[in-house]
Amino acid sequence: MIHYDQIVVGGGFGGMTTLHKLREKGFNVHGFERGSDFGGVWHHNRYPGARVDSETPVYQLWLKEVLSDFIFTQRFPDWKELQKYFKYAGEKLKLYDYFTMNTEVTASHWNDKESLWYVSTQSNLNGVESKFTCNHLILCIGFAAKKTYPDLEGRGTFQGTSFHTADWPWDGIDVKGKKVAVIGTGASGVQVIQSISKEVGELVVFQRTPNLVLPMQSQEADISRQKERKEAYHQIFNDSIPSSFSGFEFEPDTRSGKDCTPEEIKEKFDDCWKNGGFRFWLGNFQDIMVDKSTNRAAWDYWKEKSSVRVKDPRKRKILVPDEPPHYIFTKRPCLETTYFESYNRENVDIVDINTNPITEVTENGLITKDGSCYEFDIIIYATGFDAITGGFYQMDLKGKNGITISEAWENGTYTYLGMSISQFPNLYFLYGPQGPTAFCNGPTCALIQGVWISELIDFTTKHGFKYNTPTIEAQNSWRKYIQDNANQTLLPYTRSWYMGANRDGNKPRECLLYVRGVGNYFKDINKESNMGYPNFVFV
Ligand code: N01
């Protein structure tokens, strides 16, 4: 059986960064990626209109070796440009030699006697199963590793074509003139809808919750500025982490909306709206997700801006209701360009499945509670993911004494620093539960967590320890810290994937994210390492 010092699972930003950092330290590290290439979610999410909501240049690997050549042509690159970028970065960093593609990690079991992880894999090409051992296991599986479908009667009986947005057929699908259903209006749904509405014959959108979408505004990348700043990127990025809230090049306004005059509020909102991207959310007043009056002012502004864009009063009421469906930003907004205008087309309709749920999938289409039968050629499930923790549950992951992750998290999610779990020695993860994750530019998280993990591994190895594991006490207080901070925000009021509450089932409702911002997170984790890891046991 082949042995590695470390195995990295996943070849997106997290896996590429971490493997690169471990290799720099001279370890014998190997990675497995279930897709056929690097990219993680950007390998799998290739539906029409898929493009990232985070801006370049910060949305790229923060590794100096790959910061000077690649020029992004789009401010918010689409999946094609991102796939090109990942290929470039994989080649430049010589990562292809260290990753096995098309390979799913099917099980990872800790062996107490040998202090090793036994990792089982299966090839997606020929089904061949293999086993490996390693000292340390790093899960870089992202927060969207497990797709979810609605639990609908007859879902398998549909005779047309149906698929999840994260499984868009590789050779594309011709929607021209077809009758198409989209179920779900999260980021994936919004992008698909605005993209295919012009091509399809008929489109019916089944919406549970209106998406409080934000304007992308300019899509042009500032290429000359990119070129000018290339050499300084590494410094710019590294200098900005310790004070940044979300890893972007803009910061929340340090004022509280509740202390501002209506004129000041309007001026701020206008500015955020005009400049686009996530500014209306993450560059807005610092109390936007905390104070109900500031939050309400943002909703009122959003509603005024959005409602004028939908002509049909019935459709408008579904898309832009009179009252907020939830506190704005307590669900993840997404960026749009022509989302509302799509509904002004005669071939596009919308059904509010909150009041009139889908009751059945038939051979020909869908039936809703009021008895309406809809016939389709294609049903697109834009129904999202068992986010953040789903990827852990779907792996056969066993720690000390054979404990499963479901057993370890039976009473809620417990981690230390959003990177390790106490009964799972030498196991680490990035961009997952109880880290900044959804409130952090992905590559920023990949860098700060990847570096931190590689240093802990280095420390463990250099001191001749077989393994490290955080104490249960440290884990309990980290969980409390996460929940206490989240409880000061408006997040717990809303059923969202941030709260593990976007799907049916018995996942505990709890905030799964670190809400104090990247800068504070950076300080918290570095406090632990600078003090010599006092909350870890080393054996
Ligand atoms: O998934 P979602 P997504 N019956 O969970 C609905 C990132 N991302 O793939 O809101 C009927 O957001 C559900 O309704 P509700 C980004 O972080 C980024 O769109 O739960 N409907 C919702 O409308 C994003 O947030 C980018 O009431 C059901 C939709 O399906 C995250 O990935 C692009 C249902 C799911 O929306 C996930 O986005 C794409 C059911 N049983 C994704 N279950 C960019 O950067 C769920 N829904 C651009």
From TrEMBL:
Needs which cofactor? FAD
| InterPro entries in UniProt | FAD-binding_Monooxygenases (IPR050775), FAD/NAD-bd_sf (IPR036188), Flavin_mOase-like (IPR020946)
Domain of life here? Answer: Eukaryota
GO-annotated molecular function: flavin adenine dinucleotide binding; N,N-dimethylaniline monooxygenase activity; NADP binding
Q: In the UniProt record, does the keyword Flavoprotein occur?
A: yes
Keywords attached to this Swiss-Prot or TrEMBL record, sorted alphabetically, are: FAD, Flavoprotein, Monooxygenase, NADP, Oxidoreductase
The entry sums up its family as follows: Belongs to the FAD-binding monooxygenase family.
Name under which the protein is recorded: Cyclopentanone 1,2-monooxygenase (CPMO)
Give the organism, scientific name.
Scheffersomyces stipitis (strain ATCC 58785 / CBS 6054 / NBRC 10063 / NRRL Y-11545) (Yeast)
Which gene is transcribed and translated to give this protein?
A: FMO5
